[in-house]
Amino acid sequence: MSAIQVHKLPPKGFAANCYLVTLDGENAIAIDPARSDVFDRAQEMGLKIGCALLTHGHFDHVGGAAALQSVGVEIGCLQSERSLAMHHNLGERFSCPVPPFSVDFTFEDGDKLELFGMSVSVMGTPGHTAGSCCYLISPSPSLPGCALFSGDTLFVGDVGRTDLPTGDRAQLRESLRKLCSLEGDLPVYPGHGENTTLAAERRWLVRFLR
User: Looking at the chain, which runs of residues are DSSP E strands?
Assistant: First the structure.
């Protein structure tokens, strides 16, 4: 069975990391469409974006959502994050207004999505925002996850801030415990900064969460 491929689009301006994830090398999921040129970059790679998933709704993660939606790409997020993503994404507060877009479909913690041959497990990880989530993606429902997309819940040696609206430090700690409980090691693709592994982050998180 083929392995999933992850293409990272680094930030431009005040944007976050965006990831294009594909199994067949043709159809891709965009995770956190932060940039307005995500569609063009995907085309350059020979990829067709089938949908976009948001780890949460802050402006720096959704700045390219409207551009994708304008070419027919549907946008999905956790149900509890829908309003924040569309209406309260803090773009105006940080002088980075987000072109209007709508969330086309939602899901809940624990849901499994079957998208373009890939299995996407939704992990609700509130704390950075009330509706933050992580995605655990595998090439088949019968196989364990092989890539974790952590949004702003977990970074290299750091965790997401909780001082913005709907943030909650106690919830974040519980969400980090949830990530630490995942079995084995996984590559981790955060919303900001460099990629890491769950084993590397688990080592310091165990001390952080005591």
Answer: 5-9, 18-22, 27-31, 48-53, 74-78, 105-107, 112-115, 118-124, 133-138, 147-151, 154-155, 158-159, 187-190, 196-197
Tokens representing 145 are 């996850």
Tokens matching residue 40: 């063009």
Sheet containing strand 48-53, strands side by side: 5-9, 18-22, 27-31, 48-53, 74-78, 105-107
Host H or E run for residue 75: strand 74-78
C-beta of residue 138 within 8 angstroms of C-beta of residue 119: yes
pLDDT in tens, the chain (210 residues): 579 999 999 888 878 999 999 999 999 999 999 999 999 999 999 999 999 999 999 999 999 999 999 999 999 999 999 999 999 999 999 999 999 999 999 999 999 999 999 999 999 999 999 999 999 999 987 776 789 999 999 999 999 999 999 999 999 999 999 999 998 899 999 999 999 999 999 999 988 998
pTM of the model: 0.96
- Domains of the chain, each with CATH number or no CATH: 5-208 (3.60.15.10)
Distance CA 24, CA 56 (A): 26
The Cα–Cα gap between 143 and 75 comes to: 26
